[in-house]
Amino acid sequence: MTEADPKFPVPKRTPEDRKAQQHPMLPEKDLLNGTLVMPDGRPAIVEDWIDSDFGLYCRTVIYSRIDTEGWGQDEHLDLIEKAGLLKELKMKRSAGLTKQVDSAGNQVWFVTVAMDKK
Question: Are 102 and 62 in contact (CB under 8 A)?
Answer without folding.
Answer: yes
